[in-house]
Amino acid sequence: MSKLSEALQSGKFVVTGEVGPPKGVSVQEMLESAKLYKGRVAAVNVTDQQSAVMRLGSLAVCHLLKEMGIEPIFQVTCRDRNRIAIQSDLLSAYVLGIENVLCLTGDYVTLGDHPKAKPVFDLDSVSLLQAAVQLQQGKDLAGKELDGIPKFFLGATVTPGANPLEPQIIKMEKKVKAGAQFFQTQAVFEPRKFEEFMQTVKHLNVPVLAGIILLKSAGMARFMNKNVAGVHVPDSLIEEMEKAENRVDTSIEIAARLINELKGLCQGVHIMPIGWEKRVPAVLGAAGL
Amino acid sequence: MIITAQKPLEEILNSLSPYNSILIAGCDGCTQPPRGLKEANILAQLLGLAGKQRGKSFKFKVITVPKQCDSFLAATSLKPEIEGIDAILSLGCGVGVQTITEVLPDLIVLPAQNALFIGGENREEDVLLERCAACGDCLLEYTGGICPIARCAKHLLNGPCGGSQDGKCEVSPDRPCAWQQIIERLSKMGRLDKLEEIKPPRNWNLNLAQRKSQG
User: Fold this and answer.
1) Which of A52, A68, A118, B142 is surrounded by the fewest CB atoms within 10 Å?
2) Domain count within chain B
3) ipTM (interface predicted TM)
4) How far is A106 from chain B (nearest CA, A)?
């Protein structure tokens, strides 16, 4: 059974981490980063060609994490694979002992480093969830019976800071209906707004892990405000980073403070260190986790 | 209508370079912006000048066809004009080029246009907008008259992705999020309930079966 599912059922505040596979085959540094999560988090997401940038595959890295005794979350986007390839990869994940799957639409190809690629989007995040559910019921999307049935713990994403929010909630409701068993959110920097979001989705009765991005600098915060849909870093935090004597200490302090403010509001946090994996233990320590 | 953009002159010149006597055929059908006799004459002048700069002297004859995509109209308009012609340069869309190829199989037919999409013209803003993907399974009833196949970059069927922000698509700040528009429209009509239904994966090959017109 998925250890992530068990952790969420235990009612404890759950923490998940994230690693991004390298562009190439040198996995040592990424695996060193992953080691820092061991024993500290319930599971670790492996991104699927994040931002439409071609990299080492998520499935292979999930397998490497599993071998190290780390519970992986296989991120699957609809951008690069049609329904034949996606279902096949889901089966492949299962036989490698990977049960947690995060179902995403995926960034558009022109946002990445192969902007001339043919975008697929045969399925969308909702029909991807349905496909995984159908496989668990012993049938593929064509209605053909499977020889041996997989079991997954299915996740999805939501952007609590989206403007407007209503379309995101409509989609979130559909994802739950389609089979999503947990949610990980886009980065949260405003706990009060996030609290309102959680009130709005209370009726869905599904565990939500709030996204935490470690701020590396005031510039990074401004860049995200301008370029990342649904992420808003308030001026007060940007100022705090700007005035920081030691950026790393301040970043850790901010992340830990956000986590503490989120503790009563949702079922856990999903930490996206984006290169600052080494700081994660300090963040968790400072947040008392 | 089919929205087209003229190919770069250099590309057209390269394709014409093996030939001397060329029939330039406009199309009075649905291509937009217009690609009729006037545009065919302008293109002939431009190609003539550009050819001379390269030391190449083409002989152009210019006509227009009511609808290049109609095999009868294409044949009756073009057949009386092709004596001594080495190649036809078509200002029609890809359908026009292929129909002429079919009715005049002994001639070389070259495209002067890139067909971009099936679209409409917004005269107030003077823009041409993609509106239909000819997908073979019209969804406009479900989506309040706004097509997510033609207007959402990812052709999503079940609502916006996380890249939708302030009503814009993640692909470009100039591109409205079709799903935002759909939700606003359905909300205005009091029909947001339509979106509760989960749309299963599409049959992307539906139009393959329908491509041979039932006439």
Assistant:
1) A118
2) 2
3) 0.92
4) 8
